[in-house]
Automatic annotation (TrEMBL):
Transmembrane segments: none annotated. Keywords: ATP-binding, Coiled coil, Nucleotide-binding. It holds the Pfam family AAA_assoc_2. This is Replication-associated recombination protein A. Residues 82-109 form a coiled coil. Residues 50-167 form the AAA+ ATPase domain. Belongs to the AAA ATPase family. RarA/MGS1/WRNIP1 subfamily. It comes from the Bacteria.
Length: 418
């Protein structure tokens, strides 16, 4: 061992446990059996060095980057690792040119791994199409986001999409036990043990994120002496502060559940989804805006005060910030969930917009024009006939009141006319 090897080995001891415990080959890879079990297509392609352009999609810490690293160690192709966030066009062009030269002069393939590929702008993604299409290089893209939302369809159609799933609790437990017994890369030299209750807790609470689980394990281990046991209280303290990153798909799904729970007057469910969104780091101002929209769209005239409550909550969130902002948000969510519902205003403006789009832009009736002087104030002279709409529209019915909450009076008035 020379000086440089010794320095590198010493440096590795300071790497996070989650980095040190990365699988080095497919046999060490835990989880994703639907893709990497013996005999599965992706494993066969990797082992035969015949992979094709692909996008690896899945939540954080499910093995996307690790799998790409394993591929890089098993392939005879030139392997280039990039990150979309810091990738410049000039760098990409240089790699494309070198890949063409390798293929033309040396008959050597190039594999380009782009992490966080969803962060690439659409025009940059477009620049990859020809190279992927004609085989100039093989693309491996990794993303935690929705392929449908964040990757342009032409690029997706040229790649095989493999979806990686969150690791199951049994897989998390296997990795934790391995980290505790591995003396080379893990915590084996400390001879620590872990209670079954603590092991089950970390396997469940990490939500399939093995990096989060190993980080918590490392924090817990650093607070103990050799030969001690990691109990439930210790691991809970290690997880006391945790961030739950969510993908684009999760974000839309959680937001949808939040809105639909308020619409369905399911107060407990609405509060639960609100809490999930807040814990996941979603901007509370975004949530306040959604509450304002819901107050107008789904509560509407059944309880007009709901809009005032929602706007006040948004102003309070802007004024005080988190974590106290959770309180006015919860107050508005409870008030709106418990309010009677009416979407008549939403339907009315939708009908009006559709009417405008599909009809001729008729002129304003003369009695309503600013310049004619024909207008008669109906408050001062009630009963005076006025044409408020173009006669060609034949008195369209755009607003239909609903028999709900405070709108009941308007509903009754309209039914009297009938």
């Amino acid at each position: 061992m020379d000086l440089f090897d010794f320095t590198a080995k010493k440096k590795n001891t300071h790497e996070p446990l989650a980095v040190r415990m990365r699988p080095r080959n497919l046999d060490e890879f835990v989880g994703q059996k639907h893709l990497l079990d013996k005999g599965k297509l992706l494993r066969t392609l990797i082992e035969s060095d015949q992979i094709q352009s692909m996008i690896l999609q899945g939540p954080p810490a499910t093995g996307k980057t690790t799998l790409a690293t394993i591929i890089s160690s098993m392939t005879n192709a030139e392997f280039v690792k990039l990150n979309a966030i810091s990738l410049a066009i000039a760098e990409l062009r240089s790699i494309l040119e070198k890949a063409r030269e390798n293929l033309k002069y040396y008959q050597k393939r190039t594999i380009v791994f782009i992490d966080e590929i969803h962060a690439m702008k659409s025009n940059v993604q477009m620049s990859l199409l020809q190279a992927v299409e004609d085989g100039t290089f093989i693309l491996i893209g990794a993303t935690t986001e929705s392929v449908t939302h964040d990757i342009i369809p032409p690029l997706t159609s040229r790649c095989k999409v493999y979806t990686l799933s969150p690791l199951a609790p049994i897989d998390i437990k296997k990795i934790i036990n391995s980290a505790l017994t591995d003396s080379e890369r893990g915590l084996g030299s400390h001879q620590l043990k872990i209670d079954e209750s603590a092991l089950s807790y970390v396997a469940d609470i990490c939500n399939g994120d093995v990096r989060s689980a190993l980080n918590a394990l490392e924090v817990a281990a650093s607070s103990l002496k050799d030969n001690e046991t990691i109990d439930l209280n210790t691991i809970q303290q290690a997880f006391e502060f945790r961030l739950n990153g969510i993908s684009t798909t999760d974000f839309y799904d959680l937001t949808s559940a939040f809105i639909k729970s308020m619409r369905g007057s399911q107060t407990n469910a609405a509060l639960y989804w609100l809490a999930r969104l807040l814990v996941s780091g979603v901007d509370p101002i975004f949530l306040a805006r959604r509450i304002v929209i819901h107050a107008a769209e789904d509560v509407g005239l059944a309880n007009p005060q709901a809009l005032q409550i929602a706007v006040a909550a948004k102003q309070a969130v802007e004024f005080i910030g988190m974590p106290e902002a959770r309180i006015p948000l919860a107050e508005a969510v409870i008030y709106i969930s418990e309010s009677p519902k009416s979407n008549s205003a939403y339907k009315a403006i939708h009908s009006a917009l559709e009417l405008v789009k599909r009809t001729h832009p008729y002129p304003v009736p003369n009695q309503l024009k600013n310049s004619t002087g024909l207008y008669v104030n109906p408050i001062d002279t009630p009963g005076t006939p006025l044409a408020y709409l173009p006669v060609e529209l034949n008195e369209p019915s755009l607003y239909t009141p609903q028999n709900s909450g405070m709108e009941e009076k308007i509903f009754a008035k309209y039914n009297q006319k009938v």
